[in-house]
Design brief:
The complex is a heterodimer of chains A (about 180) and B (about 130).
Chain A (H helix, E strand, L loop, with lengths): L2 H6 L11 H12 L26 E6 L2 E2 L23 E4 L6 E2 L21 H9 L5 E2 L2 E4 L6 H18 L4 E5 L2
Parallel strand pairs in A: 1-5, 1-6, 1-7
Antiparallel strand pairs in A: 2-4, 3-6
Chain B lengths: L1 H9 L4 E5 L2 H7 L3 E4 L14 H17 L5 E4 L22 H32 L1
Parallel strand pairs in B: 1-2, 2-3
Classes of the chains: A alpha/beta (about 180), B mainly alpha (about 130).
Chain lengths: ~180, ~130
């Protein structure tokens, strides 16, 4: 850190949000995987204002985590990337009990994320508390599992409408979507 | 996940994304986004830290409630640790030896093959069920 940095109280140069697109693209380029992944990119962004207060709204929770599958190798905590644990169809399960969800199938930070505590990627317990306190009106009966598919076509044409339909069926007013 | 948020919003359901990949979510274009500057996999708070998880969920709901328009990003004030050096390591090719790169190349090939087989099987069995 330079003298001026210190004088002005600047943060360390590395201490800003990781430029993932740049990191991942140069990583795979170096590993020799020709055409870089093209992340989605839009100029227009939709926006729907809340129709009623949160205390009257039923919250739908959407996750990329996968249900634990005992027959599919190591799924953590601390598992290496496990592509066998991936799933390719939207799934739902009850929010009445806490499910056993894992993240070994997605690109988490394996240096620092131990994946020992499901509540760091699946905030159902907190939502239940907030429902109990009346901050939110409630939680839909099911939560929604979204495949992490490299095929954006499939995500947009199959998974997105499927998740929307299921949330609508369950009377979800708003959605909390946890990325990983 | 940003694509899902966009689809839900287009169909009248307000959303908030909780995430740790700021540039990715913002490039896609998200309606509302609570960004936690944590390693990927901790979008809902720190492990074994209920206080951090409660704070993060409450902040996400505040973003959902109070955003005035699309592309609202709020960054959580929580820090993963003091020095932030974890940010240097993720897929950072500049920090890897040639041996490490070779090892990762082999691992990548193996996983790609497994995922391909699994995907074909899933889609086939779904088609059979229909």
């Amino acid at each position: 850190m330079s003298e001026a940095d210190q004088k002005f109280g600047f943060a360390e140069p590395h201490d800003k949000p990781i430029p993932y697109i740049h990191r991942i693209s140069s990583y795979y380029e170096t590993l020799g995987y020709g055409k870089p992944y093209r992340w989605a990119q839009y100029n227009d962004v939709p926006f729907t204002p809340l129709k009623k207060s949160l205390s009257e709204s039923r919250v739908a929770l959407v996750t990329t985590a996968a249900p634990y599958q005992p027959d599919k190798d190591d799924q953590g905590p601390g598992a290496p990337y496990n592509s066998a644990a991936k799933f390719y169809m939207v799934y739902t399960d009850t929010t009445e009990t806490e499910p056993d969800l894992r993240v070994s199938h997605i690109g988490i930070d394996r240096n620092y994320t131990t994946a020992e505590d499901m509540r760091t990627w699946f905030p159902l317990q907190q939502l239940k508390r907030l429902a109990g306190e009346g901050v939110i009106g409630g939680i839909t009966e099911r939560f929604y599992g979204a495949p992490t598919n490299r095929s954006q076509k499939r995500t947009m044409e199959v998974d997105c409408p499927e998740i929307y339909e299921r949330i609508r069926e369950d009377g979800g007013d708003v959605a909390v979507i946890v990325a990983n | 996940m940003s694509l899902i948020a966009r689809h839900l919003e287009q169909n009248g359901i307000p959303t908030v994304i909780m995430g740790c990949g700021k540039d990715i979510v913002e490039q896609v274009g998200a309606p509302r986004f609570l960004f936690s500057d944590f390693p990927l996999g901790n979008a809902a708070g720190k492990p074994n830290d209920v206080e951090s998880q409660a704070f993060t969920m409450e902040l996400a709901l505040k973003v959902l409630k109070s955003a005035i328009g699309p592309r609202t990003t709020v960054q959580s004030p929580l820090r993963w640790n003091e020095d932030g050096k974890w940010k240097l390591d993720f897929s950072n090719i500049e920090q890897m030896s040639d041996e490490e790169i070779a090892r990762r190349r082999a691992e990548f090939d193996r996983n790609k093959q497994i995922a391909k087989e699994r995907r074909e099987k899933d889609i086939k069995s779904a088609a059979a069920a229909e």
